[in-house]
Amino acid sequence: MSGFLDLPALSRAAGTIRLPGSKSISNRMLLLAALAEGTTEIHDLLDSDDTRVMLTALAALGVGLDKRGADVWRVRGVGGPFPVKQGDLFLGNAGTAFRPLTAALALSGGHYKLSGVPRMHERPIGDLVDGLRQIGADVRYLGHEGFPPLEVRPAEIRLDEPIRVRGDVSSQFLTALLMALPLTGKPAVIEMATELISKPYIEITLNLMARFGVKVEREGWARFTIAGGQRYRSPGTVHVEGDASGASYFLAAGAIGGGPVRVEGVGRNSIQGDVKFADALAAMGARIEMGDNWIEARAPASGKLKAFDLDLNHIPDAAMTLAVAALFTDGPCKLRNIASWRVKETDRIAAMATELRKLGAMAEEGSDWLGVSPRLTFVANAAIDTYDDHRMAMCFSLAALGGVPVRINDPDCVAKTFPDYFDRFGRVAAPVIAIDGPSASGKGTVAQRVAKTLGFHFLDSGALYRLTALAAMRAGVALDDEAAVAAVAAALAAEFEGERILLDGDEVTEAIRAEEVGVGASKVAAMPAVRAALLERQRGYRQLPGLVADGRDMGSVVFPEAPVKVFLTASAEARAERRYKQLIEKGMPANMRTLLQDLQERDIRDAARSVAPLRQCVDAELVDTTNMGIDEAVAAVLDQVRRKLPK
Ligand code: DC
Hints:
By secondary structure, the chain is an alpha/beta fold. The strands form eight sheets. A five-stranded parallel beta sheet has the order 25-29-24-30-31. Strands 2-15-17-16 form a four-stranded mixed beta sheet. α1 packs parallel to α3, α5 (172-180) runs parallel beside α6 (199-211) and α15 runs parallel beside α17. The radius of gyration is 29 Å and the shape is elongated. It starts with a strand and ends with a helix. The mean pLDDT is 95. Bound molecules: 2'-deoxycytidine-5'-monophosphate (DC). 2'-deoxycytidine-5'-monophosphate is lined by residues 439, 461-462, 465-466, 518, 521-522, 525, 551-553.
């Protein structure tokens, strides 16, 4: 364990994020593509610890893997059992790699060892080993009976009788058997010896097997039949859905922090059971909307989430998010039928209860349930331990929405499934102070001072338009060629290093302030394609602990959900005079009359353009600095901040 992350007190969450690929789907697809005949191109594969573990193992087993782009992998399937017949595999704490590989290797006719981190060696695997031994597989325990590490040796596989397997500890044992059995080419039957938990994960397995050409007949959840003679065949190109479990943190943030928060990458068409998390939020009164590929959550119309008492067996991972959301409800909540939590990355029932208490909540635990009482006020500065469990870290980020600072210990454990989780959380939860206004109103200086006082990030959006104009001019692109200028904007290699601004590694801090660049910026800023090309980049500046953004459309277009919006202006005469003084100080020629005329013309142009015209938002506070000095203007903005943001 190392390090910590201090989250500031937060109150509102709104915005849109694109989800990383689903872990469950990524690792299943990798294995199926590896075993299949033909080459599979997998798009949007999750890049995280658990998928890296799977990729490394598959490469060691003789599977050809090429990275073709940021999230695109080409997998050359081996068309049957693994060709490499010997290996020593380290599988970290990735259950989605360990269990299916154990089964596939047991049927591959080789000699292998499988091990993981100490916690992996505490996570049961006996039910899977029992199932494999029934069909003649030679699987041995190298440490404790019933737990990894394991050794697998060649053996003759017999499939004359149904395999009986338990499904009440983890559904991954059944998933592992189902995915591996087609390697034998023989007909096979699996019968459940117990109730099956986490059924939606089996649906993901069956769905993906079918995509790779193997059909499984299912009788309820008790019996599964794989007809003989089926083999995996590559479907060509496949796409990994966004991670529905990962979506739960953002949707909960929207339900708790006002919203709307939209996640992209999962929706109505998802094959992941965890999209049902949205139903649980809806049952709590949250307002949910769903499209084919997105889900959006907002707080209840009443503002307060309702207490719940729910059987959550079908969404064990996303259910953890509800345990923290329970703090924000109107009464005691109960999460039922979650025994599998005890054998996950950590004992999640115990861990959750312990950490919830640090926030002041009452938490009661049973063998397969958790009770949580809500809080009106949260204990500030709780230091949350995360137990090397990515979901603990992600869940407890929501506690900061209780309006208190929260410390997350060992935040990097999110790398298991969601390496940039906290950046993306910041994209919906970090408070934004939007300062818009006309040229020379002093907003740049004021915004910078406010950012410094608060310790927030700072975005000078005008600089991006200036950089675009300068980059286009340097590249010989005509400033009236909208498509070409938009391409320049999209590829802008700009860096902000404190006060210094770099373009393609070249310092341009002074150069972008030149009059001709200002005129060029004003031209390109009127082009819709240029504004669109810069939109996501500007939103990327929204990071914890917060952002002060200065421009023309910060409150109206880029950050419409900003809790603090200021329209900073001054009379044209006052602005002309300020610019006049600046120029004289720099020893540059200046003429009061032309300056005033230029400003007035630019005001008219900025206000009249069809996209993002300059105007005061209805929800923005007017700060007129005509008769104010900088200190007074900064104080006026900070006063807004004090009234609208939690301390
Ligand atoms: O604030 P500034 O003078 O550096 O802005 C340069 C140009 O970019 C100016 O013509 C206005 C335009 N701009 C814009 O259209 N939208 C923004 N958010 C910021 C600046």
